[in-house]
Amino acid sequence: MASIGDSKCVLVIGATAGIGRSLALSILSLPSKPTVVVAGRRKDRLDQLHKEHGHDGRLATIQMDIDVDRITLRKTVEDVIALHPKLDTIIFSAGVQHQFDWTKPKVVNFDNFASELNTNYTAVITMITYFLPHLLKLGSSGQHCFIVPITSGLAIIPSPSVSNYSATKAALHSFGISLSVQLSDTNVHVMEIMPPLVESELHDHQGTTPKLSKIWMPLDEFTVLAMDGLKRGDLHIPIGAVQQRYDKFEEGKVDVVNAMFNPRKT
């Protein structure tokens, strides 16, 4: 089965901290020695990553903000492909989370709402669309390619306090299943990572980090489990407590979708 171990060049979007950074460094350490391109908004962190891990030339950095319009995203994708024509794997780790209280609709911040929707869903789908011609061409030559959206256990059971975040992850999860079925006759594979609550900076601006840090999964533990799934080539990688939710509500869904819409795959 095709797996991340086959990758020659991996782009990790949202890799200056947390899950993205940890996965990027783990992939850099794979025996296959892929090139890893880390992308993120914060140049100081990108520079630090390159200083610490770019000594052998296999780690490259790109400053990138995905909460932008589609014309800018198209140019970003074109630039990445021009710089890294062997790019065969893209991991979408960038994300933002806001709390919304719908019992107080007059104070709902729709700028935050729109930014969260774009960062977590619309921009991801837009970039996938722009990357696909390159990946499909590479795949037609026999190279296995991978699209790796990072969703959340909240895609299965939403959290009311982060309702829009949960909805964006549910949408990305659903889209990933459809995309995987449509690409099933190609060498472009969709592997979805579904984290539980994981140690990160995601919650710092909400002021909930002290509370959540008592119950979240340590980042190192998450990374080991996620990498195990990527190296196995699992199409869905539910981690920790998410595995139980996945088994109860999602197990077999892909088979049902195939049976209904792609019967030759059943």
Automatic annotation (TrEMBL):
It comes from the Eukaryota. SUPFAM superfamilies: NAD(P)-binding Rossmann-fold domains (SSF51735). It holds the Pfam family adh_short. The keyword Oxidoreductase applies. InterPro entries: NAD(P)-bd_dom_sf, Sc_DH/Rdtase_CS, SDR_fam. Keywords: NADP, Oxidoreductase. GO terms for molecular function: oxidoreductase activity. Belongs to the short-chain dehydrogenases/reductases (SDR) family. PANTHER family: 5-KETO-D-GLUCONATE 5-REDUCTASE (PTHR43669), SHORT-CHAIN DEHYDROGENASE_OXIDOREDUCTASE (PTHR43669:SF11). This is NAD(P)-binding protein. It comes from Piloderma croceum (strain F 1598).
